[in-house]
Amino acid sequence: MADEARHRRIKKVIPEMYPIKAWLSTDEACSFMNMSINIFLSMALDNNLTVSQVGGKKFYKVKELNAVFEDHIIIRQVK
């Protein structure tokens, strides 16, 4: 019973964790990824992220940022 309540609560929270926008500015992407700008730009180059430049401001695809998260998640078993 407690597991069902927890599962319903998790389902409600997870979609809210992701941005609604399809593209994020560099500052927004750094905040989303919880990285400094230097680390983020290095990671963006290493992962060949798509960059769109509008009026001197760079934007990154949220789908690609999420893919980087998924590719680098390390799951460890807690004893």
From the alpha-carbon coordinates, what is the Rg to the nearest angstrom? 16 Å
Structural class label: alpha+beta
Instruction: Count the E strands.
Output: 3
Give the assembly state of these chains.
single chain
Question: Which regions have little confidence, pLDDT < 50, spanning 5+ residues?
Answer: 9-15
Considering DSSP H and I runs of 4 or more, what fraction of the residues is helical?
55-70%
Task: Give the number of domains.
Answer: 1
Helix run count: 4
**pLDDT average, as an integer?**
79
| SSE succession | HEHHEEH
CATH architecture: Orthogonal Bundle
Could you characterize what this model shows?
- There is one protein chain.
- A hairpin with a 2-residue loop joins strand 2 and strand 3.
- The two termini are 24 Å apart.
- By secondary structure, the protein is α+β, with helices and mostly antiparallel strands.
- A 3-stranded antiparallel β-sheet has the order 1-3-2.
- 57% of the residues lie in helices and 15% in strands.
- It has a single domain, classed as Arc Repressor Mutant, subunit A (Orthogonal Bundle).
